[in-house]
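Hi support team,

I've been running sequence recovery on a batch of backbones for a student project. Most finish fine, but this one hangs at about 90% for roughly twenty minutes before it completes. I'm not sure whether the input is malformed or the queue is just slow. I've pasted the structure tokens below so you can try to reproduce it. Let me know if you need the job ID as well.

Thanks,
M.K.
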């Protein structure tokens, strides 16, 4: 009897959990998807075997207001029962045919909506991208109305003969990645999700709430209400949907703790690709990896490799001790290399911190890298890279050298916080342009390498300068001018909304001249640092070999 009673209790608990999982605190999916679509197609066109249609369908009623959605829909001519995905624009920009035609050329039926925002072809007029806002009633928040529109977007795809309704996915960039993460948890009809940036767990930190440091308006109670209502990660433990995130480690909007919280929450197959020292942009190879994830889950393409969480262990050989990070991988895609990325400093400064890359050894399917001594805690992640250049990354692990018993040191590992761009070589200019940092004119008159940057009269901003918070650094660069001139250099920093600037003036002539300035970035939750070079009127300056390095014996 006791055993039977215990079994009954267990069954009741399981049923209670299932009921709770089914009762969404905000979205009544069954009711929202049962209303008529009233869909219509206008302006169909065909180009190079791709059909593109302008479509309208009904989303929902907001009181007496009808919210109706405009979208582009593209598919290969004659296609039937195709895999499909909804593309969510970066910044929730107005729908365009670029991504729908891109998807159609890959063999998908693809839909991209105008979100119901002011001035768009959809109706509603909700200012969704004004910020991450939670109203007293979550159903009155602008974000809610965008999510309902996406529910009906999937409903629309289900009505089309071109679409296999059992193979519908979603992908998006930035705000589009936010919504992709959200809908992966909300909509049980989705079979795969792929996010360029964008995630949930935003209560753990994000630029909208925390760019000026933690404020009273988003206190612990507010963050908990957000977490339990509109946060995109909330529902992921209730879904088996395959979901992947592809991002730079230094993303301005979606910080690493939020990404890790989203990854941890996901119950189904999951993947992350971390690109060290990149912000809100990706390389073409990672762009391709985003859609290859959809191919693997919607078209039967080879599965992604899987990777184990990173482990830290001490190995001893006689008197010699080594601290190793190890991780394993498996899968059908051949691996060509592995690396460990490492960033000194405790939690915070997620946008401005530098990530050092160290090669890892591969033995059979196990990767290992030796940890370094450091005067402070640091974060590490392991990555394997396959033959296509696709990245498979582990979640971050915090390492405290003191807790591990590593030998004490007061010196940081050397690095150059301008190394991704400071030589202005072709790949470094691509890094700058791909993330909209700057698009410098270049000269083949270089101090080192093939190129330098050309600075015209006025203020010229160069960034990012990546760093370890609280540690003295030295900025250096080489300059030459077409005529002797006094050139002003400012190191311009913003730390939790507070400015910290250092200024110097240097006389620059026709020969390459090295200039330098010391600067200590203060500790902050949100931080960014630039170099601003002000060139006098009628003068042109070349700059090369820009670097920002921690000073020796920095504590």
């Amino acid at each position: 009897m006791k055993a039977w009673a215990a079994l009954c209790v267990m069954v009741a608990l399981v049923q209670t959990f299932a009921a709770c999982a089914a009762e969404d605190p905000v979205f009544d999916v069954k009711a929202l998807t049962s209303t008529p679509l009233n869909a219509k197609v206008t302006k169909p066109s065909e180009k190079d075997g791709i059909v593109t249609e302008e479509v309208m369908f009904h989303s929902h009623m907001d009181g007496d207001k009808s919210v109706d959605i405009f979208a582009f829909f593209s598919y290969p001519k004659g296609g039937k029962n195709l895999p499909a995905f909804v593309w969510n624009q970066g910044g929730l920009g107005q729908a365009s045919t670029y991504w729908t035609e891109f998807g159609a050329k890959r063999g998908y039926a693809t839909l991209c909506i105008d979100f119901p925002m002011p001035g768009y072809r959809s109706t509603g007029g909700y200012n969704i991208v004004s910020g991450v806002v939670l109203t007293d009633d979550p159903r009155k928040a602008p974000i809610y109305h965008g999510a309902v529109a996406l529910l009906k977007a999937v409903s629309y795809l289900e009505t089309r003969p071109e679409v296999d309704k059992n193979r519908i996915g979603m992908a998006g960039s930035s705000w589009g990645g936010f919504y992709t993460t959200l809908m992966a948890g909300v909509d049980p009809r989705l079979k795969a999700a792929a996010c360029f940036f964008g995630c949930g767990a935003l209560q753990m930190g994000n630029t909208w709430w925390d760019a000026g440091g933690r404020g009273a308006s988003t206190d612990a109670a507010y963050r908990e209400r957000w977490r339990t209502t509109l946060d995109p990660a909330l529902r992921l433990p209730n879904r088996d949907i395959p979901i992947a995130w592809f991002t730079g480690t230094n993303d301005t909007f979606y910080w690493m703790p939020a990404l890790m919280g989203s990854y941890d929450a996901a119950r189904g197959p999951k993947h992350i690709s971390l690109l060290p020292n990149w912000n809100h942009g990706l390389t073409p190879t990672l762009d391709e990896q985003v859609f290859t994830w959809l191919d693997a889950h919607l078209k039967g393409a080879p599965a992604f490799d899987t990777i184990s969480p990173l482990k830290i262990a001490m190995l001893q050989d006689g008197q010699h001790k080594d601290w190793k990070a190890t991780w394993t991988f498996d899968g059908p895609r051949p691996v060509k290399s592995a690396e460990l990325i490492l960033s000194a400093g405790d939690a915070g400064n997620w946008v401005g911190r530098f990530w050092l890359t160290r090669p890892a050894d591969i033995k059979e399917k196990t990767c290992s890298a030796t940890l370094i001594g450091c005067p402070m805690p640091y974060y590490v992640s392991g990555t394997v890279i396959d033959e296509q250049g696709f990245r498979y990354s582990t979640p971050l692990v915090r390492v405290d050298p003191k807790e591990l018993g590593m030998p004490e040191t007061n010196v940081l590992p050397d690095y150059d916080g301008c190394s991704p761009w400071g030589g202005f070589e072709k790949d470094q200019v691509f890094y700058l342009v791909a993330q909209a940092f700057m698009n410098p004119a270049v000269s083949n008159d270089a101090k080192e390498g093939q190129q330098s940057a050309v600075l015209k009269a006025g203020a010229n901003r160069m960034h990012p300068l990546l760093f370890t918070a609280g540690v003295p650094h030295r900025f250096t660069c080489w300059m030459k001018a077409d005529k002797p001139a006094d050139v002003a250099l400012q190191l311009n920093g913003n730390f939790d909304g507070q400015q910290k600037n250092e200024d110097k003036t240097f006389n620059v002539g026709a020969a390459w001249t090295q200039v330098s300035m010391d600067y200590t970035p203060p500790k902050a939750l949100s931080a960014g640092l630039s170099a601003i070079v002000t060139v006098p009127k009628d003068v042109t300056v070349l700059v090369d070999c820009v670097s920002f390095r921690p000073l020796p014996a920095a504590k």
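--
Follow-up from support: It reproduced on our side and the slowdown came from queue contention, not your input. The first helix runs from residue 2 to 22. No action needed from you.
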